Amino acid sequence: MQVYIAADHGGFELKDKIKHLLLSMDITPIDCGADSVDPEDDYPTYALKLCNKLTDDNIEGAIGILICRSGVGMSIVANKVKGVYAALCTAQEQAIKAREHNNANVICLDADYQDDQLHFDVVKAFLTTEFAGWDSRHGRRLKQILDYENNHLSRA
Fold it and tell me: Structural domain tally of the chain?
């Protein structure tokens, strides 16, 4: 499984912890930044870098993990990129449904509101859950989104 990870200054410390978790799961993530803590950095830089790499590499089943203080900013930016379906997840059940029902390929995490163990559990749930399938009711709904995306949106 290919996993990309990125964070701004607010999520930098959690990114390092999540990277260690992934390595313990025999997953070597591709780090899309930040490379150091810079309080003046901007989350869109890292969200766009990760999302564009994710879509450019076009590896089936690849996942992205984005982290900022609230997770909201990263989620907003990520969902501007065609082919990216980002979900802000603060609980395991959200992560499971984001994958199973919405075929999300990017998870956004907050660095400020949850403890590390919960983040680890959420990431594990996201990585281990499969999409229900294109023939499911969820697939039918996602096809509607894809149709809109393909006919109305361009790449950010």
Answer: 1
